[in-house]
C-alpha cells in the first residue's frame, strides 16, 4: 500500500496509517538514541551497542546489520510525502471500493466466517471492519505487501535526522521480531516506512498488538491469516473499539479507529466498505 507500484492516493493512505501507529514506537525506543547523521557505519555501530543493551542478542544484531547500507530510494520517497489526501471522499472511495473488491471481500468473510466469529467474540470487532481493513491494505493479503528489507529501510530512516528517535524505536522493534522468531530475517520485508504484513503493521505495533491466534508460538503477520486478522482486531480493541456500537463518523468507534489511521477520509472509507460487506 505504500509502494512505487501503487497509486499515489494509496501510498498516502498507507503512510497515514504509519503516522497513526507511531505512538507505540516510544515504548520500543532505545534508552539513549544513537547520534543521527554523519557516517552511516558509525551510526550502525552505536545503535548496535544500544540494541544489545536493550536485550537483543549479538547474533541477531550481527546477522541483521551484515552489509547493511543506506537506501536512497527510501529517503527520496520519504522526502516527497505530504501525509495528506487531495481527493474528496467520493473521489477517493471510488478508487478503493469497487464491485470487484466488495465481491472478494464478501467471499473472504464467508471463507473465514468461523475464524472471524471467534475473533469478534474475543475482541469485539465485527468481521466487516476487519475484512474492510484487510482489503484496503493489501487486497486481502494477495496484493503488494512490500519487498524492501525492513532492517535496511528502518536503518536508513533512523540514520536520517528528521525522525531519528521514531525510527530508531521501529528498528529496535524489528530486531525484536527477529529475536522472538516471529519472522526470519530474509522474510522481514515491507514497505517504504518499514510496514510489515497483510495489514501493514509498523514493527512497534507488531510487537505491541500482535496476537498468536493460530497457536503456533509465533506472531506471523505475513503468512498467518488468523494472526493477521486477530492482531488487527486487537489493535482496535485495545484502543477502545466497542462491540456492537456504531463505527461511522462521529462515533466513539470511529475515534478508536484513529489509532489505525488518523485520516478521516480513510476511516470513512473503512466504514463505507464495511457497510457494503455487511449488506445482504
TrEMBL record:
Q: Which Pfam families match?
A: SLT_2
> Which InterPro entries does this chain map to?
Lysozyme-like_dom_sf, MltB-like, MltB_2, SLT_2
Q: Which NCBIfam families match?
A: MltB_2 (TIGR02283)
- Please state every residue range assigned to the domain named Transglycosylase SLT: 40-247
Q: What is this protein called?
A: Lytic murein transglycosylase
Q: Which UniProt keywords apply?
A: Signal
In the UniProt record, the signal sequence range is 1-33
On the tree of life, the source organism's domain of life is Bacteria
Q: Does the keyword Signal apply?
A: yes
Q: Tell me the classification of the organism that encodes this protein.
A: Bacteria, Pseudomonadati, Pseudomonadota, Alphaproteobacteria, Hyphomicrobiales
Organism of derivation: Afipia carboxydohydrogena
Amino acid at each position: 500500500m505504500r509502494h512505487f507500484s501503487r497509486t499515489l492516493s494509496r501510498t498516502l493512505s498507507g503512510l497515514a496509517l504509519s503516522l497513526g501507529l507511531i505512538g507505540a514506537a516510544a515504548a520500543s525506543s532505545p534508552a539513549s538514541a544513537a547520534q543521527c547523521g554523519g557516517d552511516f557505519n558509525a551510526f550502525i555501530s552505536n545503535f548496535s551497542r544500544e540494541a544489545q543493551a536493550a536485550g537483543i542478542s549479538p547474533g541477531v544484531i550481527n546477522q541483521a546489520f551484515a552489509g547493511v547500507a543506506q537506501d536512497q530510494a527510501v529517503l527520496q520517497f520519504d522526502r516527497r510525502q505530504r501525509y495528506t489526501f487531495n481527493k474528496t471522499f467520493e473521489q477517493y472511495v471510488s478508487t478503493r471500493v469497487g464491485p470487484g473488491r466488495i465481491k472478494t471481500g464478501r467471499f473472504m468473510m464467508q471463507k473465514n466466517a468461523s475464524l472471524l466469529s471467534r475473533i469478534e467474540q474475543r475482541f469485539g470487532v465485527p468481521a466487516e471492519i476487519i475484512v474492510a481493513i484487510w482489503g484496503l491494505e493489501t487486497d486481502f493479503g494477495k496484493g503488494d505487501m512490500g519487498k524492501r528489507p525492513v532492517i535496511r529501510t528502518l536503518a536508513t530512516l533512523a540514520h536520517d535526522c528528521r525522525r531519528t528517535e521514531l525510527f530508531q524505536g521501529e528498528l529496535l522493534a524489528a530486531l525484536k521480531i527477529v529475536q522472538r522468531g516471529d519472522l526470519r530475517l530474509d522474510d522481514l520485508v515491507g514497505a517504504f516506512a518499514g510496514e510489515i504484513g497483510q495489514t501493514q503493521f509498523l514493527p512497534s505495533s507488531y510487537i505491541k498488538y500482535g496476537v498468536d491466534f493460530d497457536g503456533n508460538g509465533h506472531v506471523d503477520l505475513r503468512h498467518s491469516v488468523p494472526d493477521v486478522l486477530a492482531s488487527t482486531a486487537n489493535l482496535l480493541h485495545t484502543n477502545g473499539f466497542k462491540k456492537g456500537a456504531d463505527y461511522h463518523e462521529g462515533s466513539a468507534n470511529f475515534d478508536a479507529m484513529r489509532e489505525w489511521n488518523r485520516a478521516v477520509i480513510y476511516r470513512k472509507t473503512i466504514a463505507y466498505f464495511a457497510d457494503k460487506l455487511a449488506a445482504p
